[in-house]
């Protein structure tokens, strides 16, 4: 598949996504649309479609950076505890400053995510030569620890009945005016493109990077900032989506190889396509109700990951 | 008398003291009923402790690490998925269609089946890798959780209430009908397990050494994985999932008893686990007056300990 064809597919599906929903609006009657139809399109359908695309791009690129920085194909926001850290941050914001808006939640989530990422990198760095499989296992458990802390405080403040299904990714609440934070993903994609090669070098280890004359700490910091900001922004606006950052970079690497500069656009576009398809399916399966995106991607992504694992043997 | 035997005796004394405290603290005047309920609770906690301790220690011996426990294999997720599917199929008729006993044994069968499939999947090839087994278990766990959540999403709210009892079990809501069946399974597993300590000591040296010393490695690993599956099933069916309990009690045991001998480690770990749960439960009942769920406390403390272990140990 050429990038051009993928982009066309993405465009067609995005337009289609604008016309899927409870209120049927036909594209053929464009001349006869009432003001109400226009309002639904601009207030709800268009923001939703944009959010879907940005989420797909953001999380996939994040997964890619993480995999480069740890030199491990199985690391992603799901398998490094990043998602759970974002949840803990949001919970902290709800407890400490309930009256403030999304931006403050984002700041809290960002701080916790950043700290968790630093700790995880330290752990991963220590055991990098042990086994490629061991790092994601630890990362998932690390996420479990953060989750248990979240549950502990949630019980203390009696605010979360059930943290299991809490913050499961869901696009149905996206409306104009409550999702704009997600546009943070765009500058991050550009930064990633500029730093792509440096992230790979950082993944080789500290002494190696310094021998090549790279500012190891600086690049590491930029990478962690990118990851933490994107994951937090998406967690605050949409919720968490498991496995997304794991499978997209892996599938792209199987199809197009590992030249980061070359594959980066593919990762972004295929990520967006995948989330869009999952979202459309989720909207149609139990129509007029919706299956949240977190579940759709969790199911499909989990299966794809299993296939990748068993093939890799 | 060796120092280790002294430590075990000390732990036993502490355990008996705790039991006595737990059974008699603040009994009302007509004490018989309360006393009986409490005895059942202590008994169930003892069974869960033995199941968790044995399965965690053996699992760590098989996988050569001190921080992973069978919880990460996805057994508990299988249990939760099975419960969800039953309620999804039968709705409010669940209890008339399937009795607690049948449910319990079916859950065990499903978990054993899951262990068997995992085993076949990974050990089909010669170069089997236990870490791969773990990762696949973890992914399956997330997958099963997602499926369960999806079914719970489209479940009738009344039916969901039926399910909620099984999803968030605790030591305050022990499934008393199951105690005797669980005991039979537990004794069966221990009966087989007690004869295996010698092999475990050797397997702890590593696969190459074990094979060189004439241990039928493949068979023994398979046998122990099934024992672990059955024991996890017992503890999950009785009180529900507690993920970080295993990590906490095994590492406390290793700290106290610096030995590799399983005939010391396993009884010691059972005692440590019993003391931990009973102590936590006592605090929950009398200090927090039931305001907090015990599994939350244990996971919180165990989880922090887990991170500490990760950052402390150079070689995992």
Automatic annotation (TrEMBL), chain A:
It is a multi-pass membrane protein. The chain crosses the membrane at residues 48-66, 106-124, 131-157, 177-196, 216-235, 241-257, 264-286, 292-310. It is found in: Cell membrane. GO terms for molecular function: transmembrane transporter activity. The keyword Protease does not apply. Keywords: Cell membrane, Membrane, Transmembrane, Transmembrane helix, Transport. InterPro entries: ABC_BtuC-like, ABC_transptr_permease_BtuC. Pfam families: FecCD. Its main location: membrane. Belongs to the binding-protein-dependent transport system permease family. FecCD subfamily. This is Iron chelate uptake ABC transporter family permease subunit. The lineage of its organism: Bacteria, Pseudomonadati, Bacteroidota, Flavobacteriia, Flavobacteriales.
TrEMBL record, chain B:
Keywords: Cell membrane, Membrane, Transmembrane, Transmembrane helix, Transport. InterPro entries: ABC_BtuC-like (IPR037294), ABC_transptr_permease_BtuC (IPR000522). It is a multi-pass membrane protein. The keyword Lyase does not apply. It is found in: Cell membrane. The chain crosses the membrane at residues 7-27, 39-59, 71-91, 103-123, 130-154, 174-192, 224-252, 264-284, 290-311. One of its GO terms (biological process) is siderophore-iron import into cell. GO terms for cellular component: plasma membrane. One of its GO terms (molecular function) is transmembrane transporter activity. Belongs to the binding-protein-dependent transport system permease family. FecCD subfamily. PANTHER family: FERRIC ENTEROBACTIN TRANSPORT SYSTEM PERMEASE PROTEIN (PTHR30472), PETROBACTIN IMPORT SYSTEM PERMEASE PROTEIN YCLO (PTHR30472:SF19). This is Iron chelate uptake ABC transporter family permease subunit. It comes from Formosa sediminum. The lineage of its organism: Bacteria, Pseudomonadati, Bacteroidota, Flavobacteriia, Flavobacteriales.
């Amino acid at each position: 598949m050429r990038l051009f064809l993928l982009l066309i597919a993405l465009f067609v599906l995005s337009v289609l996504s604008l016309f899927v929903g409870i209120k049927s609006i036909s594209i053929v009657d464009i001349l006869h649309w009432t003001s109400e139809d226009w309002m639904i399109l601009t207030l709800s359908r268009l923001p939703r479609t944009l959010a879907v695309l940005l989420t797909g791009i953001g999380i996939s690129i994040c997964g890619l950076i993480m995999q480069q920085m740890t030199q491990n194909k199985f690391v992603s926001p799901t398998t490094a505890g990043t998602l759970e850290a974002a949840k803990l941050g949001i919970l902290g914001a709800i407890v400490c400053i309930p009256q403030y808006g999304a931006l403050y939640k984002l700041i809290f989530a960002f701080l916790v995510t950043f700290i968790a990422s630093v700790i995880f990198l330290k752990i991963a760095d220590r055991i990098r030569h042990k086994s490629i499989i061991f790092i994601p296992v630890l990362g998932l458990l690390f996420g479990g620890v953060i989750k248990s802390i979240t549950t502990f405080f949630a019980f203390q403040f009696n605010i979360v009945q059930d943290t299991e299904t809490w913050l499961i990714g869901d696009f149905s609440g996206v409306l104009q005016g409550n999702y704009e934070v997600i546009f943070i993903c765009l500058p991050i994609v550009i930064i990633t493109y500029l730093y792509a090669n440096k992230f790979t070098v950082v993944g080789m280890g500290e002494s190696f990077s310094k021998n090549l004359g790279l500012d190891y700490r600086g690049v590491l910091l930029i990478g962690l900032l990118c990851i933490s900001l994107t994951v937090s922004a998406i967690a605050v606006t949409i919720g968490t989506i498991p496995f997304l950052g794991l499978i997209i970079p892996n599938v792209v690497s199987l199809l197009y190889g590992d030249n980061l500069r070359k594959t980066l656009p593919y990762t972004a576009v295929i990520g967006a396509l995948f989330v869009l398809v999952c979202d459309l399916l989720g909207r149609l399966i139990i129509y007029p109700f919706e299956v949240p995106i977190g579940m759709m991607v969790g199911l499909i992504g989990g299966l794809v990951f299993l296939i990748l694992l068993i093939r890799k043997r | 008398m060796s120092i280790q035997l002294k430590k075990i005796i000390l732990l036993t004394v502490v355990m008996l003291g705790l039991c006595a405290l737990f059974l008699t603290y603040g009994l009302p005047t007509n004490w018989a009923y309360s006393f009986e309920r409490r005895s059942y609770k202590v008994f169930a906690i003892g069974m869960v402790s033995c199941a968790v301790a044995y399965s965690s220690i053996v699992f760590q011996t098989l996988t050569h690490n001190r921080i992973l426990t069978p919880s990460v294999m996805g057994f508990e997720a299988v249990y939760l998925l099975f419960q969800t599917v039953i309620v999804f199929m039968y709705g409010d008729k669940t209890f008339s269609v399937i009795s607690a006993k049948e449910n319990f044994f079916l859950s065990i069968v499903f978990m054993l089946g899951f262990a068997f499939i995992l085993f076949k999947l990974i050990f089909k090839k010669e170069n089997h890798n236990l870490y791969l087994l773990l990762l696949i278990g973890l992914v399956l766990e997330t997958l099963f959780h997602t499926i369960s959540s999806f079914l719970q999403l489209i479940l009738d709210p009344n039916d969901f209430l039926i399910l909620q009892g099984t999803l968030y079990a605790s030591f305050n809501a022990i499934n008393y009908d199951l105690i005797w069946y669980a005991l039979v399974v537990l004794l069966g597993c221990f009966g087989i397990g007690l004869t295996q300590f010698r092999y475990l000591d050797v397997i702890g040296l590593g696969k190459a050494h074990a094979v060189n010393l004439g241990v039928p490695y493949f068979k023994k690993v398979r046998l122990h994985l099934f024992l672990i599956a059955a024991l996890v099933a017992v503890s999950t069916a009785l009180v529900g999932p507690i993920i970080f309990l295993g990590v906490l009690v095994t590492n406390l045991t290793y700290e106290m008893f610096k030995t590799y001998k399983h005939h010391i480690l396993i009884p010691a770990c059972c005692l440590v686990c019993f003391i931990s749960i009973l102590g936590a439960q006592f605090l929950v009942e009398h200090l927090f007056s039931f305001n907090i769920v015990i599994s939350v406390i244990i996971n919180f403390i165990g989880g922090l300990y887990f991170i500490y272990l990760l950052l402390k140990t150079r070689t995992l």
